[in-house]
Amino acid sequence: MHVTPVRKIQEQHGIVGRERELATALAVLGTGRHVLFEGPVGVGKTTVALAVCAHLGRQTVRVDGDDRYSEAKLTGWFDPPLVLKQGYGERSFFAGPLVQAMTAGSVLFINELNRMPESVQNVLLPALDERLVIVPHIGTVTAAPGFQVIATQNPVEYVATGHLSEALRDRFEHVVLEYQSAAEERAIVARETGSTDDELIGRAVGLARATRRHPRFKKGASVRAAIAIVAIATALDGDGALRRAAAAALATRVDLRDDIDADLESALDEIYVAVVERSEDPDVWGAEEPDGGQKKA
User: Fold this and answer.
1) Which residues of 162-185 are buried (b: 16+ CB within 10 A; e: fewer)?
2) What is the rounded CA–CA span in Å between residue 286 and residue 46?
3) Which fold has domain 182-284?
4) pLDDT, tens digit, for every residue of 144-188?
5) What is the model's pTM?
6) What single DSSP character describes residue 17?
7) CATH number of 5-176: 3.20.20.10, 3.40.50.300, 2.40.50.140, 1.10.390.10?
8) Are 264 and 216 in contact (CB under 8 A)?
9) β-pairing verdict for 34-38 and 172-176
10) 158 phi-psi bin (left φ>0, alpha ψ -120 to 50, beta other)
11) First vs last Cα of the chain: how many Å apart?
């Protein structure tokens, strides 16, 4: 039986679904282009990116973006004591991840690119476009064959994120990862927790998905919350275990809307009543309010 590359990646890396995204990423990387994965927290952007690299046998150099990341940290820096002894040159220079990936012909994987300062993002432009970067006192570093960049970013409405410049986005091919279906999320939770309690898994997934649809919430929780709910509820056991687990797992993963007068406890209690006690399916919530919701203009 012939196993497709996508199926092979799914089996080897435990990825549920994502057939279209995996196929697109394989095609983009196979043509030597750079990839930008975009999607909310917890949808598996990093997992998909690294799984595709592993399948293609590509070595990766990883960078985790933050707003304090510097240009020198990306390209490389000179060690002051060595400079005093030997002067500026290759012997006193320590290559950063960009130069490491370029000289080795590897993949530079940048996690959360749009958390980096714009000045650092701009350093990538010549590397992406002309496959070179100019390092002071060293000269021009030219990328070896095989150099590519894979980056991820969260939507700009997330805290501590910003927009990528139009010039930088133009150098990437774009792959979007949305939240997965309820069935796929249940499969992910079962795999990650080892639980065989279908009712508990279904309720945990329903609670996480409810935070994405309920009008009180500005930012909902990913499947990570459902995984945590099942693990915590199983460990707690007894009366009220699910409610306590949901409160613990969801509180750090959601944000309430600023224009709605509600506290987090009451908002979480509302979705618990709807999903667990009334067995409502949050995926059918549309323009109408979930039962008991109080929509405000």
Assistant:
1) bebeeebeebbeebebebbebeeb
2) 30
3) Helicase, Ruva Protein; domain 3 (1.10.8)
4) 999 999 999 987 655 445 678 888 889 999 999 999 999 999 999
5) 0.82
6) S
7) 3.40.50.300
8) no
9) parallel
10) beta
11) 57
